[in-house]
Design goal:
Radius of gyration: 20 Å
Distance between the termini: 45 Å
Number of strands: 0
Shape: globular
Number of helices: 17
Length: about 375
């Protein structure tokens, strides 16, 4: 029997367990399936149930995760971007700028703790707080972020995302006197991420063939132009393909993408040595705190200066930090149903641009001597 088969079985079981717990229990939903899967796999690895290194992990890390990124980017319809209106795009642009400022500041403040890994960490977290986990994973892989920092950053990311959701739910009420009073504003109807859509055999075959083709082509283009990272090609090709109308009718795109992304966290968990993780935990929390709260200060200050609607600014901030799902929660929690579609669309915009910005920030930090 293939010795890797039992390991595949364990990893898939842990992934299924994490997704089930998130769906079944409220406390698990707050933690998120990614963090739960990482913790479960780390426990198994540190108890010796599974190895901390294996060729199976290389397959997931190098291939399956790239395919997941392609599938999730196929959800991005750039036509929806123009429908959300100038104010929403401006608010999200400010939010993205705030994240970049925060990541730059965190890199400068904590360079002595993370040394040569500072640009990698700042770029990966900037991508996460402009897009989401898909971008965090993609940029982290492209920059060769060490597994230990991946684990610590994932835990800190989940903590700060939860704190920031609570913060943005309360800030519009607290800042009502600073911001001008507006009406309902612009809104757009958008479809939520189809992470639970049924998968048809034909659609599955098409999605697999498309993703593999894009992955192969992106690596080939990187060989021709080595200065351009494979992730940039992967992102650009996926976004270009996503604009064809027929791709929107493929069933199971989101489900495949989210499954592949969650499977990636089994690899990070397996490579996590718990005693080593404890040594960087506090610094990582402080690093992410600086990014998120600087993001908030810049976003809400510029939003007030430009006289944007405070509800729209809070929504854009949450779309950047937490992604489409927490932006949807923001709109519902603030009783702003007309902004639900806007929040989802802005989250998808983040997916589209975060890889580019995260890589650019990491390069900039290296140029100024922090790498």
């Amino acid at each position: 029997m293939d010795e890797s088969l039992p390991l595949w079985g364990i990893l898939l079981t842990l992934t299924a367990l994490g997704l089930w717990l998130e769906h079944r229990f409220r406390w698990a939903a707050h933690l998120g399936s990614s963090l739960i899967i990482l913790i479960l796999t780390a426990i198994c690895a540190n108890l010796g149930v599974i190895p901390q290194q294996s060729p199976v992990y290389d397959i997931i890390h190098e291939t399956l995760t790239a395919l997941a990124i392609v599938w999730l980017l196929l959800l991005v319809n750039l036509q929806d971007v123009w429908r959300v209106g100038r104010s929403a795009l401006l608010a999200f642009g400010i939010a993205s700028f705030g994240t970049l400022v925060g990541a730059l500041l965190a890199g400068v403040l904590f360079h002595s703790q993370f040394l040569g890994d500072t640009p990698r960490l700042a770029g990966s977290l900037a991508a996460s707080y402009i897009g989401g986990s898909i971008n965090f994973v993609g940029v982290g892989q492209a920059l060769n972020l060490p597994g230990l920092l991946f684990s610590a950053a994932t835990a800190a990311d989940n903590l700060l995302t939860a704190i920031w959701l609570a913060t943005t739910l309360s800030l519009p009420s607290l800042l009502g006197r600073v911001y001008p009073q507006r009406g309902e504003g612009e809104a757009v109807t958008a479809i939520p991420l189809p992470t639970t859509s049924a998968i048809a055999p034909l659609d599955l075959a098409i999605l697999l063939s498309l993703a593999v083709a894009i992955l192969v082509l992106s690596r080939a283009l990187h060989q021709l132009w080595p200065l351009i990272p494979p992730l940039v090609w992967l992102t650009t090709l996926s976004l270009a393909l996503a604009q064809f109308k027929w791709t929107r009718y493929l069933r199971g795109t989101g489900a495949l993408g989210m499954f592949g992304l969650n499977l990636f966290f089994t690899v990070i968990g397996a490579g996590t040595h718990v005693p080593s993780l404890m040594s960087v935990g506090l610094e990582m929390i402080l690093f992410t705190t600086v990014i998120v709260f600087t993001h908030g200060l810049v976003t809400f200050s510029l939003g007030a200066l430009l006289k944007l609607d405070v509800e729209l600014v809070a929504l854009a901030s949450q779309a950047a930090v937490g992604g489409s799902t927490t932006a949807l929660a923001q709109a519902i929690g603030r009783h702003q149903p007309q902004l639900m579609g806007v929040g989802i669309t802005l989250g998808l915009v983040g997916y589209a641009i975060a890889n580019y910005l995260g890589l650019a920030l990491a390069q900039a930090l290296s140029w100024i001597g922090l790498g």
